[in-house]
Amino acid sequence: MFSRNKSGAPASTSPEPSDPARAAAEIEKAGAPVKNGSDRKGRPTPKRSEAEAANKRPLVPNDRKAAAKAAREKAREQRNVEYRAMQTGDERHLPARDKGPLKRYVRNYVDARWNLGEFFLPVAFAFIVLNFIFMQNATMSVVVLMLLYGVVLLTLADAFLLWRGLKKRLRAKFGDVPRGTMMYAVMRAFQIRRSRLPKPSSKKHGVWPD
């Protein structure tokens, strides 16, 4: 059943061992990488879970009290810088609500104008004192209260005129008027001029912005 070659030796059923160099060339030609001892990294490849754990950083610091204290110190330092900027007029460090050429124009316009709102607090305080004085006199108490209501209505009307004139100028100069600008202008107009922050750029009324 088995065939024999001419020399009489039985034929081998397994293929002859190939040349190692030829096998490596064929594997390389096929596109498979040939690994030898020099290609190894010399250390085991880390698992995926270990690599992810090494890249993770704690979101919450270990010492929360120290972190909270550092955050408070940073916030206080920022407030001090902003307060000094409002005192000196340094616009680089002003709070976000006061930054920008539009807000600067609003402040200068309000500061240049004589506003009834800037006298409202002293006048209201005077009416409160008068109300205590005439507390026993019902007629005078009503008169004082009505006068106070009249002052409130006059200041509101003056604030409306302030915003109407300012809005026209803002649209002519800047085009769009952001929301909240009216309240920014009116609240500044109701403050005593000396106590306004940021400080007025001019010490007197009548210096209108360009």
What does the model show?
It is a single chain. By secondary structure, this protein is mostly helical. Among the domains are: 63-99; 100-120 and 152-210, no CATH class. It is built from seven helices and no strands. The longest helix is centred in the last third of the chain and has 37 residues, at 138-174. The chain is elongated and about 115 Å long. The N and C termini lie far apart (116 Å).
* Rg value: 42 Å
Shape type: elongated
Sheet having the most strands: none
What is the straight-line distance between the termini? 116 Å
Mean pLDDT: 82
Q: Which spans have pLDDT < 50 for at least 5 consecutive residues?
A: 1-18
Strand content: under 5%
The number of distinct helices, counting runs of at least 4 residues, comes to 7
Residues in helices, as a percent range: 55-70%
Order of helices and strands: HHHHHHH
What is the SS-derived class?
Answer: mainly alpha
Number of strands: 0
Overview in brief:
This protein has 7 helices and no strands.
Features:
210 residues, mainly alpha, disordered N terminus
Topology (elements, then pairings):
Layout: H1 20-30, H2 48-55, H3 64-88, H4 101-112, H5 120-133, H6 138-174, H7 181-189
Helix pairs in contact: 4-6, 4-7, 5-6, 6-7
